[in-house]
UniProtKB/TrEMBL annotation:
InterPro entries: Extradiol_dOase_DODA (IPR014436), Xdiol_dOase_suB (IPR004183). SUPFAM superfamilies: LigB-like. The gene is ygiD. Residues 23-236 form the Extradiol ring-cleavage dioxygenase class III enzyme subunit B domain. CDD domains: 45_DOPA_Dioxygenase. GO terms for molecular function: ferrous iron binding; stizolobate synthase activity; zinc ion binding. Its EC number is 1.13.11.29. It comes from the Bacteria. It comes from Usitatibacter palustris. Signal peptide: none annotated. NCBIfam families: PRK10628.1 (NF007914). This is 4,5-DOPA dioxygenase extradiol. Belongs to the DODA-type extradiol aromatic ring-opening dioxygenase family. Its cofactor is Zn(2+). Keywords: Dioxygenase, Metal-binding, Oxidoreductase, Zinc.
């Protein structure tokens, strides 16, 4: 019987972290090193957004360079992990049992929301990996339910990894700002999220658009925040915060371990 795994949420930051070893990437590796080695990994990535849940059965999954205008060396990086079609089939069955029917995509590879953190967390690329899409227009409650449907995977050696951003506003990135010097509104939202999770106030957290400070500024769109709810649903409380501060002013980089 494999060890029961927590569920994780990571703020994956800018694609440049793929080639920029430092504070954030060392923290990601430390998070992985503190866990039993997973038999497989399911990444719920902000960068695959669909109307209904979709899970990839690609074997192997190709590395998708889903960004433009970055240094050429980033496009030469590949993460050659094997695929996990058996996990995709299991995910599909769990979602159907929860009346959250979606589809299996036989071709979808790993976008940078998946492979950038995995490159540092599991650099050997020897663990089978698959991805599950988000449905950003369906909100927090949907993703909590999605995560809860996936909870049995934790007892099957599968690491459920939500990848997005606790604070994510690309419109206000400041590439010249000192790495950990955040905007005040970014801090306010980030600390509100941490406080709600520490107190177990999940209803308030799910209602963040009405209750949190500066929600539209912290998340102009939903896709980078909803993976947190999927990981929270899968892992449950308690929530252990890994405080990684901020990058480029408007990216909150915190990670969470759930369960």
């Amino acid at each position: 019987m494999p060890d029961r795994l927590p569920a994780l949420f990571v703020s994956h930051g800018a694609p440049t972290l793929a080639a920029d070893e430092g504070y954030f990437t060392h923290a990601w590796r430390a998070i992985a090193d503190a866990l039993p080695k997973p038999r497989a990994i399911l990444v719920v990535s902000a960068h695959w957004d669909t109307d209904a849940p979709m899970v990839s059965s690609a074997h192997p999954p190709r590395t998708i360079h889903d960004f433009s205008g970055f240094p050429p060396e980033l496009y030469e990086i590949h993460y050659p992990a094997p695929g996990a079609p058996h996990v995709a089939a299991r995910v599909d069955a769990l979602l159907r049992d929860a009346n959250l029917e979606g589809r299996i995509d036989p071709q979808r590879g790993l976008d940078h929301g998946a492979w950038v953190p995995l490159l540092w967390m599991y650099p050997s690329a020897d663990i089978p990996v698959t991805q599950l899409s988000v449905q950003s227009r369906r909100g927090a409650a949907h993703h909590l339910a999605l995560g809860r449907a996936l909870a049995p995977l934790r007892d099957e050696g599968v690491l459920v990894l939500g990848s997005g951003g606790v604070v994510h506003n690309l419109r206000e990135l400041d590439w010249h700002r000192v790495a950990k010097e955040p905007f005040p509104w970014s801090v306010a939202f980030n600390e509100w999220v941490a406080a709600r999770l520490a107190a177990g106030e999940l209803d308030a957290l799910a209602d963040y658009r009405r209750r949190a400070p500066e929600p539209a500024r912290a998340h102009p769109t939903e896709e980078h925040f909803v993976p947190l709810f999927a990981a929270l649903g899968a892992g449950g409380l308690p929530a252990s915060r890994i405080d990684l501060a901020y990058d480029l002013g408007s990216l909150g980089m915190d990670c969470y371990r759930f369960g």
